[in-house]
Amino acid sequence: MPTPTSTPTWSPPMPKAPGFEHLVVETPGLRTHVAAIGAGEPVLLLHGFPEHWWQWHAIAPVIAARGYRVLCPDLRGAGWTEADDPRIDRETRLRDLLALYDALDVEHAHLVSHDMSVLTAMQLTYDHPERVRTAVQLSVWPGFFDFSPKLLPAFYHLPPLVWHRPGASLRWTFSARYAACPMSEAVIDTHLAPMRRPDIDAAVRPLLRRMVLPEAARMMRGVYQRRRLTAPTLVVFGRRDHPTTEELMGRICRDPERYADRVEFAYVDDAAHFITDDAPDAVAGLSLDWFERAA
Predict the structure, then answer these.
(1) What residue segments make up the domains of the chain, in order of their start?
(2) What angle do CA 177, 183, 186 make, to 5 degrees?
(3) Is there a smaller number of Cβ atoms within 10 Å at the N or the C end of the chain?
(4) Which residues contact 293 (CB under 8 A, 6 or more apart)?
C-alpha cells in the first residue's frame, strides 16, 4: 500500500510543487514514487525522458481542480523510484504500471503520456484496453503510422543516448531543437536532478537499447497496423516539433479509422517536443476536453 513520505527523506531533495502529496508504492522489486493531487476519478500522467513527475507540476493541479485524482509516478529508471533489479526489457515498464494500478486499486484511468512513456501507454491501451478510459499521447506518432524517410531527423537524438556514458550531461536534450520556449537553468537543473543518482544515470542506455529501440522497430514493422486501437486516443504535437508537421502527420496517418475506433489529432502553436514545458495550459485544456468528450 502507498505510504506518505515527507520531503526531507528524498535524495536528491524533492522539488517544490504546492498541493502534491508524495507516496511510495511498493510492488515486487520496485518502490515507486508517486506525486498525487486532487480527488475523484483517476488520471495517470506518465513523464517523458529525461524528466520525472515534476514535468506535470503546472498541469496536474489544473486537471485536479476539475474533480480528478491525478497520479504522477516516476517510472522505473527515472526520478525517485527505486528498483532492486536494474535490468529492463521492452515491457518492463508495462508490468510496473499494471502492478501500480493494482496497488492503488485503480480499475481504469485516463492516461496522459509524453515522449518515451508513450510506448508504455500504447502497450497498455492495446494489451489492456479495459484499464484505459481515454488516452492522450504527446509528441509521439501513433503506433499505426506509416514510416517515411522525412521522419529521420526525429531520430537525431538517439545515437548519443544509446551510447550514453555515465556522468555525461543531458542538458543538450533541452536545447532549442526540442523546446520552443527556452528553459531556465533552474528548470533544467530540476528536470535533471535525479541523474545525480548512479542507478538513474545507468538506466539511460538500457531504456534506449532494450525498451525504446525494440518497440520502435515493432512500430516501423507495422505490428500495430495489424491490431485495433479501441481506447479513445488523442494525439497531440507542438507545431514546432520538427519534422512532425501537420501535413506529414496527415500522410503517415492516413485513414486512421482503419486502425482505431476513435482517434483525433491536435496541434499546439509555439510548442515543440517538450510540449508540457512549452504549453502546459494547452496540454491541460486539451486533456480535460478529451476526458469529457471521449469517455
Answers:
(1) 18-294
(2) 140
(3) N
(4) none
Residue 2 binned pLDDT confidence (cut-offs 50, 70, 90): low
HEC per residue, the chain: CCEECCHHHCCCCCCCCCCCEEEEEEECCEEEEEEEECCCEEEEEECCCCCCHHHHCCCHHHHHCCCEEEEEECCCCCCCCEECCCCCCCCHHHHHHHHHHHHCCCCCEEEEEECCHHHHHHHHHHHCHHHEEEEEEECCCCCCCCCCHHHHHHHCCHHHHHCCCCCCCCHHHHCCCCCCCCCCHHHHHHHHHHHHCHHHHHCHHHHHHHHHHHHHHHHHCCHHHHCCECCCEEEEEECCCCCCCHHHHHHHCCCHHHCECCEEEEEECCCCCCHHHHCHHHHHHHHHHHHHHHC
Rounded to whole angstroms, the Cα distance separating 220 from 47 reads 23
| CATH class belonging to 18-294 | alpha beta
Asked whether the whole model's pTM tops 0.90, one would answer yes
Q: What cell numbers appear for 293 in the block?
A: 468528450
Please give the single-letter amino acid code of residue 227: R
- Count other C-beta atoms under 10 Å from residue 257's C-beta: 8
Is the Cβ–Cβ distance between 266 and 290 less than 8 Å? no
Residues 125-150: tens digit of each pLDDT: 999 999 999 999 999 999 999 999 99
**Lookup: cell for 265:** 489529432
- Number of neighbouring beta carbons within 10 Å of residue 19: 14
> Backbone dihedral region of 85: left (phi > 0), alpha (psi from -120 to 50 degrees) or beta?
beta
Q: How far is the C-alpha of 163 from the C-alpha of 192, rounded, in Å?
A: 18
